[in-house]
Every structure is written in structure tokens, then in C-alpha cells.
């Protein structure tokens, strides 16, 4: 069986995702579609609108054959690490091609990646600008191009990870359809994920036209939309109570950010005020959300290093074709293939995902990992 | 000026406390009354029904001349440490006598303390019984008496601390008046603090007859009564996310309790279920509440040792007589006398009380310590 891979968040799964899936199948003629999907927290470090099981189930109900989880230490990362982690898993799963949306699919991403080799690394130490800004200044000088749109940035990262690891994938960028990521109105059957989330938060039923029925059913059950505002009391207490030396060991915590965040927590009773105090030109909003999440999960630099070197495939959902594909690849997969989390895995390999699931459980009351079987849709 | 000392929680300040105060003044003929009061958390490790400033203000409005805070590392402790800490402060403040309620004021507490010297310390290692149970078995064998009632236990502890430190106090136990501590009905003007709290939780206005007007006004403003049930999400996340080695360093965490509490947090979405899973014959409910609080405040064994050796007097409220007394003693007080917490004190001497105040702030939104001046009532 020939497989095409997708890297997704499905937050939530919507009609645009279904269209993308159909295109991937048509272009590649693959027999099976494999999606690597973020778990309960997005790349930006935010809790997803519904849990990973509901999103994986909606994906399989709408044509994806197999969904595996992108572990948190790969998923909640800047684009280059997110992409590298996802492709590491798709490589283990033996997919032949990867189809992904890009704002400029016509660009020669290989040429852009090669240009990066000529960058002056020493000039990346300006503390009044984000890494992305400094990166683009150099890319523009070398190629005339700047990477601004989120899917172009990911396309660059997929290309780079493939070149660095000599993956045998065919990389197929396609034009992103319909609404722009940042477009927040719903006018037809295709809307951005953020427009759909905003509609749900605003109790605007228009979102139902932009998602398949299975996803609409899950979204209709959301009572309070998971948000950083409701996680903030936990973050605030952690930042106030933990000693600075302990906060310093947190993954991504650097350059004295621990002092700034502690002070911000002491002063702020809500998340908006906290972020306003914490934000500087040096860090993006997404970076600060990721640091906040790693702080809340008490994840150390060491722990991420250890996990990054021990990837695994946690199967969330599949249909009959997905099952056959799993059966086909399971002998050659060189990393653990996990269909059920027992206490041993909870305390070792999957510990970080388990802890993230317990945090997410504060929104839903539903156990996320321990003994949870994959969703099977026939 | 001759001063009488009281050791109190005033949770809340009620008519029984006013009666106790008047008795203390009559019996001793003191010119000034000094109360050492728990802050925002009680000896049992529970958040107080209203904050320390309101309770101190009600006390001074009703006849106490000076209220200083019993720091958390003394206050949230079993009886013997609570009593020792409180008497350490009253000794610094130069009081001549201490008046306290007891269920059996006629007992010779000095004789009971001396009996303890004959105890067999090795037999205190039964893991299926609390320390108190094992203590009483030995006390009964030596003296025929058992210490069961909470104020008798404190009376014993005050006597022991006075004897051990050769304090020059006169200790004056008096009969506790009115309702029993555990009596939960309000029938007259005297009711137990717990009956008053229960009435407030039940929205039963009867509590108003049992407290002075100033306290009734503060209680009327309580929207949601501070409780462990609402602190539990913070505790749950801390127990789930922190590594076992970090939990092990928590003050009072011993004998593998960290594993039991982590497992209980993973299984339980509410505090009642958590405590049910955690409780054993080895530990009292109060002990587990105290361990829970120290876990939430991330207080280490080391930190408590350090603080215990550096006591201070944080002045919460006073009237004109209290001011005069402070003026009289301030030259001979050998520990820091603090009337306002600045950033330096926040980050050093008063750090633990400050952090407890930030936790308590989650109930009231009101800053508890930083730059908070004493309440002055003339």
C-alpha cells in the first residue's frame, strides 16, 4: 500500500481540511492517508477546542485512514522543530509523499533552505527583535524572499527537515484554499479554523456550515471553550511559588525571562494583564504561550532532550484501511507503536503527553490517555 | 505597661472571643492586650473565612490593643510547634502573662509535661496510628490522663514551651465558655467558630447574632467561602506535574506520602475524592491538609528550618494603647518589628507569608502583604 502523509492540527477538523485531504489523495494516487496530528495543545501552546480523540475521530469519519499523535515535545514548538518531529514520525510510518498547504506553493523551497547556509549566525543576538524577524532580514538579503505566512514557514521547515535527514519523501506543496488563516468571518462552507473557534466562543452557530457533521456534534458539546484565561490561576501560582532556580530549569526559559514572568504573575490576576506585562519585542506571543505551557507542565530542558531522542507512535484513530496499513508497516517501524497507554508507559515514554492530558482534563473531566483505546471507525 | 498575651485564630472573631478577652483583662489587671494571630491559613492548614486584616481589625475594634501575625511556618503546624512559635513572639513582645482557654483548666499541665520525659520514644514508630494516639497511650500509662480536647492539647503545648525556654510568663488557663468547638448549632450569642462558618456557608444569617458588628460586616462581604475545594485544581496540577524528587523535598512530606498523593491527584477531580484516597490511619486529616498547603506553596524542609530560626513581628492592627505599647517595647525587641512589607522583605524574611498571601488573593483579589499598612483604630 502506498501512503500519503499529512501534518495537521485539525483544531477543529473543517471542510477545508476535507478538501485538502481529497486533493492529497487525487494528486498522489495513494491507497492510504496517514495524518500526524497535534494532541491537546497546539503548536502555539494553546489548548485545543476539543480533545484529540474527538478531532481524530472526526478526521477518520471524513476520510483520513490513520491518525497518530504528534507528541507534545514535538508539537508545541516553533515551526522547524514541529516540522522535524512530524516528519520523523511520517518517515517511521513509511509514507511516500507528504502534501501540505502553502501560501506560495510555486516557490523553490529547496533554494531557500540552501540560502540559509550562508547566513551570518552571529547576527542573531539582537535582543530587541524576534528570531523570525532576524531570520527574514538575512533571507531577504540572500534571496529577495521573506517567509511571513505561517504555511510558507512550515513548507520551508518540511523541506529543510527532508533535506537534512535525506528522507525519501516526495514533498508536494499545494495552494491553500478559501479563507486566509487570519480571516475571521464565516461566509461559506470553507472557513479558517480560527474563524470557526471565534464563532464557537461567540455562540454563533454559523460555524456549523464550515465543519462536517461529526465535528459539529463534538463542538456542540463544548461548554466552556478551553483557554489560557482559565489555565492562568495554575500558571500564576506556579510562577509565584516555585523558586527562581526551579523556573530556570524550564524548557525554553532563558535570558532572565523567569524573573519577568514571576513579577508579571505577582502583579496580574488575569492572563491578559500577565501577557501584557511579559511581552517584549524579543519574543513572539506564541513563544510566550509555549514557555507558559512548559512552566505549567514543569518540563525541564533535560526532559525534552530525553524525549526528543525517544519518539514513538501513539495511534489515536483508524479505519479498516488504516488497520491494514498498520499491519503492513508494524514489522519495519523502528520506534514503539502504541495503541494503549498502560501504567508503565504513563510513567516513562508517554509521561509528558500523559501530564498534558491531565492538565487538559481540567476542561473536560475526561481521562485522556491511561487505558484509552484508539477510536476505530469502520 | 503590663501586657497580657493571647494566642488566637479569630476565624472569625466572635462573641466568645470577646468574653475571653474581657476575662483575660480582669484576671490579670493588664494595661494592654496583645494577640498573636494566625494569618490567612489556620493551624489545620485551611484558608481562613476572611483575610487576616479584616480579622485583626475586628479584634482591635472589640478591645484587643495590638495584633501581630503568627507567620505561616509557625501557624500551620501541629499544636506543639504552633504553641512554641506563638510563645516565641509573645516573649519578644515582653508580655507578663498568657491567658488561654482549656477544656480542663484544673489540670496540672506541668505534671503532664514532666511525665512526657519518661516516654519510650522508640515506640512512636507504629505506622497504623497517628502520633497523637501513640502519645496518649503513653500519657495515660504514666498519668491516667489523655489529651483529647483541642484546647487541652494547646494548654499542654504552651506549658511545655514555657518550661523548655524558661519564659517568665504566668500561664493562666481558663474554662472555655459556651458551645463546644465541635458543636455546630447556633442557639445564643455564643457559638463556636466552626458553627459560625457552617452557617455562613449555608447562607444562614443566624451567624450574625454570634459575632460583633464589625465582623458581621466583613462576613457579609464574603461571596464564595475560601475552601480547599476551590484550591484543589492548583494542588492537583502541582502533584501531577512536579517530579517525585521535587515533591519529596516538601516540608512534612515523608514515608512515601508523595507517591500516594501523586496517585490520588491523578485519580481525583475533586478534593473530597483526593482526601478519601490519601487518608490512612497514620495521618490525621489536619496533617494531610498541612502537607497539601506546603505542597501548594512549594515549601521545602530547608526553607522552614531557615525561617523558623528567623522570626519576626509583623504588626497587623493596633489602637492607641497598642501604639504606646509598641513604642515602649520596640527598643528591647530583639527580632525585626515590621509594620510595612517592602520589596526587600517580600523577597527575603517575609517571602513565605507573601506567597501564602498571593495564594489567598485568589479568593479575594486583594493584595495581602506588599505595602499593606497596619490597620489603626482609634
From TrEMBL, chains A, B:
Pfam families noted in UniProt: HIGH_NTase1
SUPFAM superfamilies: Nucleotidylyl transferase
Keyword Flavoprotein recorded: no
Binding locations of ATP: 7-20, 101, 151, 176
Database matches in Gene3D superfamilies: HUPs (3.40.50.620)
UniProt EC number: 6.3.4.-
Entry-linked InterPro entries: Rossmann-like_a/b/a_fold, tRNA(Met)_cyd_acetate_ligase
Domain of life: Bacteria
Catalytically driven reaction(s): cytidine(34) in elongator tRNA(Met) + acetate + ATP = N(4)-acetylcytidine(34) in elongator tRNA(Met) + AMP + diphosphate
Residue intervals passing through the bilayer: none
PANTHER family listed in its UniProt record: TRNA(MET) CYTIDINE ACETATE LIGASE
NCBIfam families xrefs: PRK13670.1
Family, as annotated: Belongs to the TmcAL family.
Function summary: Catalyzes the formation of N(4)-acetylcytidine (ac(4)C) at the wobble position of elongator tRNA(Met), using acetate and ATP as substrates. First activates an acetate ion to form acetyladenylate (Ac-AMP) and then transfers the acetyl group to tRNA to form ac(4)C34.
Protein name: tRNA(Met) cytidine acetate ligase
Organism in which the protein naturally occurs: Limosilactobacillus walteri
Amino acid at each position: 500500500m502506498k501512503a500519503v502523509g499529512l501534518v495537521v492540527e485539525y483544531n477543529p477538523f473543517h471542510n477545508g481540511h476535507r478538501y485538502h485531504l481529497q486533493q492529497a489523495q487525487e494528486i498522489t494516487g495513494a491507497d492510504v492517508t496517514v495524518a500526524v496530528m497535534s494532541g491537546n495543545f497546539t503548536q502555539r501552546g494553546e489548548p485545543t477546542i476539543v480533545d484529540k480523540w474527538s478531532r481524530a475521530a472526526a478526521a477518520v469519519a471524513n476520510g483520513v485512514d490513520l491518525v497518530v499523535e504528534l507528541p507534545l515535545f514535538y508539537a508545541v514548538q516553533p515551526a522547524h522543530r514541529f516540522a522535524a518531529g512530524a516528519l520523523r514520525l511520517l518517515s517511521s510510518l513509511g509514507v511516500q509523499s507528504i502534501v501540505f498547504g502553502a501560501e506560495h506553493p510555486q516557490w523553490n523551497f529547496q533554494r531557500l533552505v540552501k540560502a540559509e547556509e550562508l547566513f551570518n549566525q552571529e547576527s542573531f543576538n539582537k535582543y530587541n527583535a524576534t528570531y523570525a524577524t532576524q531570520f527574514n532580514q538575512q533571507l531577504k538579503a540572500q534571496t529577495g524572499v521573506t517567509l511571513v505566512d505561517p504555511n510558507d514557514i512550515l513548507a520551508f521547515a518540511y523541506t529543510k527537515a527532508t533535506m537534512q535527514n535525506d528522507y525519501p519523501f516526495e514533498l508536494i506543496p499545494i495552494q491553500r484554499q478559501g479563507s486566509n488563516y487570519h480571516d475571521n468571518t464565516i461566509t461559506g462552507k470553507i472557513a479558517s479554523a480560527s474563524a470557526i473557534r471565534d464563532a464557537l466562543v461567540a455562540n454563533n452557530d454559523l460555524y456549523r456550515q464550515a465543519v462536517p457533521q461529526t465535528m459539529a456534534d463534538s463542538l456542540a458539546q463544548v461548554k466552556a471553550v478551553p483557554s489560557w484565561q482559565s489555565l492562568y490561576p495554575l500558571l500564576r501560582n506556579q510562577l509565584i511559588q516555585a523558586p527562581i532556580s526551579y523556573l530556570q530549569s524550564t524548557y525554553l526559559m532563558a535570558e532572565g525571562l523567569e524573573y519577568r514572568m514571576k513579577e508579571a504573575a505577582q502583579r496580574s490576576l488575569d492572563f491578559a494583564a500577565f501577557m501584557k506585562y511579559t511581552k517584549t519585542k524579543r519574543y513572539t506571543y506564541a513563544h510566550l504561550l509555549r514557555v507558559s505551557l512548559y512552566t505549567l507542565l514543569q518540563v525541564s530542558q533535560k526532559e525534552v532532550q530525553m524525549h526528543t531522542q525517544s519518539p514513538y507512535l501513539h495511534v489515536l484513530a483508524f479505519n479498516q484501511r488504516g488497520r491494514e496499513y498498520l499491519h503492513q508497516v508494524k514489522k519495519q517501524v523502528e520506534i514503539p507503536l502504541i495503541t494503549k497507554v498502560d501504567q508503565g508507559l504513563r510513567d516513562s515514554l508517554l509521561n509528558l503527553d500523559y501530564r498534558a492530558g491531565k492538565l487538559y482534563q481540567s476542561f473536560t473531566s475526561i481521562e485522556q490517555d491511561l487505558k484509552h483505546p484508539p477510536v476505530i471507525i469502520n
